[in-house]
Inverse folding.
């Protein structure tokens, strides 16, 4: 097997106020997988993503993206934070939020121009939100807001996508629309990493999974490791999912 | 107008612009109270700076005092991070402590220092033209005009250069961090600009008015627009308008200029708060009333569609069975009639073809959980709104 490793995490430990929330995580995510990170509340799922992206500083360990530190590989990575982490009353439009995805490639001081606007409009079209481009963001539904966030990540044209609970508070139509776009990304050779809550949909949506609960429980292909044993180890209680064949 | 009058209005306007710019971002970051903290806690910095330079307009004094502003922010964040108290409490602990140190320092040295607490709190805009900047024996204008002019120039340059970085780090700090625009740098950059502006402005307008000029124009603009650039332009315009109209109000009333400007800011906010087209109180109340009537109308139409039997469709039934008051029933019936949704024969109400189409579409949207589409549909169907 000669598959490339997109993301490599070594001995990562992260603490809030000296209390570890992630403990000695080793993780290798191969290129071109659609991976779910699952685990109970407080398992450190969002923390793991944020530490990989350098938003949180770990107290130990290291992270590499295609063999180099994140700071050198920013252009390869797109990030979709939790919808609730921003103020949707902010005075701006859907198009403008998507344009923010182009800021990374622009760098400091330079302003977005026609080329960036065109890319943003294309991304809006891809998520089916083009007709809402001038809508103030507070006047969008939860599902529409999530689509805007996805469009913002698409416009970054990255190799690796990190998404923090993209299905939270969205309707079924949007959920299907989003997962279809994620599957397309994987087909195009991109790596997609999703913090996910709904265990029922894991086998249907994802091909790779990481079980996390402060420590890493297991990681690998869904068909090999998504079983009652790992679920029980992760969630503590005797977990039975009927979806297993 | 005398020269002095023009100069005072010019200083007040420049101060207003210099305050409105960082103020807009403070309001959007929900950090309005930090400007209050900074404006008070720079006092010890100003006093120490004054001991050293003997000049309230010296750049060294401004930098020293601004440094106290930054220290305030760091202290507030440090106390907050312990998790023992919340941010507002931390602010309430830090700035009175620093302010009181400044007050004691002034009191202890009141005899030989030309600085008093009244001037610190309220400013002395009226005296600003007396303190002239002389270069090589030539009078080039009031010192505070040059001070606030320079600060404004720096602020505007920074705003234009880093507008996109400020926007993204204010809206989504997580994204900003992942893109490599450190939200920490942006945060302290904004705090530094706020501190320097506060120090530069407060000699002219005092600690209280600085807060008003930072927060009130931005808060007013926030009610009127959904575009960050427009919000900045509106905030600046409101600031300048209040500065000039406040000056003339003070002139006619023979009252404090600082107090009058603040009053104008307050009146401006109140006006917009009441009359803003979409977020104003009156518009909101009107919309709520319209919504209530239109929801009642839809309820009524659905009822008509569900019931073919005549006793369910009698005009009086509205009051008896659906349990509406007479006034409301009449409003709803009138609205339905005006929009050609129903017709009434012998007090029996039936849906028209148009009413039937509207109701069917509405049911579809409700079932598929797309209630928001009903709003758009109303534009197509309604000749009159509720």
């Amino acid at each position: 097997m000669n598959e490339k490793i997109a993301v490599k995490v070594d001995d990562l430990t992260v603490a809030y106020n000296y209390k570890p929330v992630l403990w000695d995580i080793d993780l290798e995510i191969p290129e071109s997988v659609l991976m779910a990170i699952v685990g109970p509340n407080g398992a450190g799922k969002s923390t793991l993503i944020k530490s990989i992206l350098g938003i949180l500083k770990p107290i130990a360990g290291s992270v590499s993206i295609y063999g180099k530190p994140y700071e050198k590989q920013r252009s390869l990575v797109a990030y979709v934070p939790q919808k609730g982490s921003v103020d949707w009353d902010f005075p701006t439009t859907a198009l403008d939020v998507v344009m923010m995805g182009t800021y990374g490639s622009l760098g400091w001081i330079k302003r977005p121009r026609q080329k960036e606007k065109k890319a943003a409009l294309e991304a809006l079209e891809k998520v089916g939100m083009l007709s809402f481009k001038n809508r103030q963001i507070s006047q969008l539904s939860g599902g529409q807001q999530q689509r805007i966030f996805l469009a913002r990540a698409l416009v970054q044209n990255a190799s690796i996508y990190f998404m923090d609970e993209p299905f939270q508070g969205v309707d079924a139509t949007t959920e299907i629309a989003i997962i279809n776009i994620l599957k397309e990304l994987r087909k195009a050779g991109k790596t997609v990493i999703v913090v996910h809550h709904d265990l029922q949909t894991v086998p249907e949506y994802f091909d790779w999974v990481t079980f996390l609960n402060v420590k890493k429980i297991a990681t690998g292909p869904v068909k090999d490791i998504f079983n009652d044993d790992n679920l029980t180890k992760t969630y503590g209680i005797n977990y039975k999912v009927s979806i297993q064949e | 107008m005398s020269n002095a009058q023009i100069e005072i209005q010019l200083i007040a306007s420049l101060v207003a612009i210099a305050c409105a710019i960082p103020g807009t971002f403070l309001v959007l970051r929900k950090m309005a109270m930090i400007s209050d903290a900074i404006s008070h806690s720079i006092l010890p910095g100003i006093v120490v700076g004054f001991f050293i330079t003997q000049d309230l307009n010296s750049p060294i004094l401004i930098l020293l005092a601004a440094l106290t502003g930054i220290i305030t922010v760091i202290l507030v964040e440090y106390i907050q991070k312990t998790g023992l108290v919340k941010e507002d409490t931390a602010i309430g602990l830090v700035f009175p402590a620093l302010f009181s140190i400044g007050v004691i320092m002034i009191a202890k040295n009141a005899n030989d220092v030309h600085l008093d607490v009244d001037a610190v709190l309220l400013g002395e805009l009226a005296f600003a033209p007396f303190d002239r900047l002389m270069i090589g024996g030539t009078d080039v204008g009031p010192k505070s005009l040059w001070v606030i002019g320079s600060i404004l120039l720096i602020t505007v340059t920074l705003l234009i250069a880093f507008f996109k970085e400020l926007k993204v780090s204010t809206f989504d700090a997580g994204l900003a961090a992942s893109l490599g625009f450190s939200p920490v740098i942006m945060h302290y950059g904004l705090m530094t600009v706020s501190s320097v502006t506060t120090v530069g402005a407060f000699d002219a307008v005092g600690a209280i008015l600085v807060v008003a000029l930072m927060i009130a124009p931005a808060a007013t603009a926030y009610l009127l627009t959904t575009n960050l650039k427009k919000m900045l332009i509106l905030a600046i315009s409101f600031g300048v308008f209040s500065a000039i109209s406040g000056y003339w109000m003070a002139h006619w009333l023979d009252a404090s200029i600082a107090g009058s400007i603040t009053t104008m800011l307050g009146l401006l906010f109140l006006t917009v708060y009441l009359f803003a087209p979409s977020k104003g109180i009156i518009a909101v109340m009107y919309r709520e009333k319209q919504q209530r009537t239109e929801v009642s109308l839809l309820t009524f139409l659905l009822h008509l569609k569900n019931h073919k039997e005549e006793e369910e469709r009698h005009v009086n039934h509205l009051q008896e069975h659906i349990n509406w008051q007479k006034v409301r029933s009449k409003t709803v019936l009138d609205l339905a009639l005006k929009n050609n949704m129903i017709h009434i024969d012998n007090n029996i109400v039936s849906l028209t073809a148009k009413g039937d189409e509207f109701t069917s579409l509405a049911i579809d949207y409700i079932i598929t959980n797309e209630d928001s589409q009903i709003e758009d549909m109303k534009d197509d169907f309604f000749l009159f709104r509720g």
